[in-house]
Amino acid sequence: MDIIIKNARLENHQNMVTIKIKDGLIAAIEDVNHAIDDSHDENYEDEVAINNANTSIYDAQGNFVCAGFYESHIHLDKACILDRCSIESGDLEEAVNETGQAKEEFSEADVYARACKVIEMAIKKGTVGMRTFVETDAKTQLRSFNAIKKAREKYAFAMDIEICAFAQDGLTTAPQTYALLQQALTQGADLVGGCPYKDEHPDRHIEMIFDLAEQFDVNVDFHLNFDLDPEGSSIPKVVKETIKRQYQGRVSIGHVTKLSAMDTLQRGAMAGLLKFADISLTVLPATDIYLNGRDYEALIPRGMVNANELAELGINTTISSNNILNAFTPYGDASLIRMGNMYANIAQLSKDKDIETVFDMIGKNAAKILSMQAEIAIGAPATLVVLEAKDAVSAIRTNAQALAGFKNGKQTFCNAAAFICFDK
Asked: What does each C-alpha distance from 168 to 5, 160, 198, 241, 416 come to in angstroms?
């Protein structure tokens, strides 16, 4: 074995387990019917050392081991620019304008440095996969795209990164943006995304994004319906194009805060459409609740979709960070555990089964959007994260610390567990 992780807790295992890793894959998972015992561990390490001097041993010390987290919606290109933005009203229009001005000064080196900073934050929080939107338009050309490609290559040992070539500021009246999206898709972008609510012709915007997706045979991801007006949703149009182009299972939408403003009947109708077209939905708690409801003086709405409600209907739902330290979200540490905890609190969840669903939204549900694998099984890639918790539910409830991570059998980070120093 190359690595042995002992004294680990796994989902659906009553006893602690030993996970054996060989050639980047999980070679064995063995139940160990004993408590953590230092003397036993010493003997065990001696036995391993005799059999293979090259075997590394990691003691999980009874903590929970999962398959890691997947960031399904983030903007690395405009992260960490809070010091370049002036925030007064705190609304969406201001965030778009301030970020638009800042974008004009983005250099490739600048975007690369900021992206690397956030990727490292995410790795140390247990994220092993990520989809990042990268704006390709007249302001940035392909500078941001080229920077993110370099960052993706640098951190491939620890994280798989998908790049979505993204039209943030409109498309129907910006032929240069369309051409730049084509260039990015030719040069390594994994999928294409649009923002119809920022376009003068949102339906045509949606059609043009699908045209690009079909041209390059890539998936689609839309920023959709980012307001609290229950009318005028773009969901029916996206569903129509998804069915027309036979893109079921290849389309994702993010935000969709209109759903939170709809009554039960209207929201149910929209959910039925999403289910029919097999469209995934990502909720972005930190941004959704920060920007929405600014015109209310009392009983300010949360402005966040209850993804659990949609998950119960069979819709694939995820939770993600969206932005880190900018005018859209002036907070952030790239912790998906923290995002899941925030979401659960806002959605007023308490039952263990609902919290388990939240954990899935930053794990296997999000991995599905990225067409990545998130499982711990014999023969699967040895991509694992150790959490300072006993199970998935307690991890979300307590904002559990990520203690260590492994990607394809190689350790990628280590966070020492805190301890109390008693006087002796």
From this structure: 44, 23, 7, 20, 40
Beta bridge partners of 20: 4, 28
Q: Shortest CA distance to 60 belongs to which of 393, 384, 395, 409?
A: 384
Residue 52 confidence (pLDDT): 63
User: In whole angstroms, what is the distance from residue 287 CA to residue 74 CA?
Assistant: 11
* Contact yes or no for 70/128 (Cβ under 8 A): yes
Q: Which residue has the tokens 């997947």?
A: 70
Rounded Cα–Cα distance for residues 254 and 280 (Å)? 9
Identity of residue 281: L
Distance of alpha carbon 184 from alpha carbon 142, whole angstroms: 7
Partner residues linked to 220 by β-bridges: 192, 251
The pLDDT assigned to 51 comes to: 52
Residue for token pair 């975007």 = 111
Burial string for 176-195 (b: 16+ CB within 10 Å, else e) reads ebbebbbebbeeebbbbbbb
The parts of the chain modelled with pLDDT lower than 50 are 37-41, 44, 46-47, 49-50
- What letter would DSSP give residue 159? -
Closest listed residue to residue 195, CA positions, set 222, 232, 235, 214: 222
Could you give the CA distance from residue 44 to residue 40 in angstroms, rounded to a whole number?
Answer: 6
Residue 371 backbone zone (phi > 0: left; psi -120 to 50: alpha; other: beta): left
**Token couple for 62:** 């009874």
Q: Where are the beta strands (DSSP E) in 42-170?
A: 56-59, 64-66, 69-74, 127-135, 160-167
> Quick one: which of 145, 156, 65 has its CA closest to 119?
156
Question: Considering the entire predicted model, what is its pTM?
Answer: 0.94
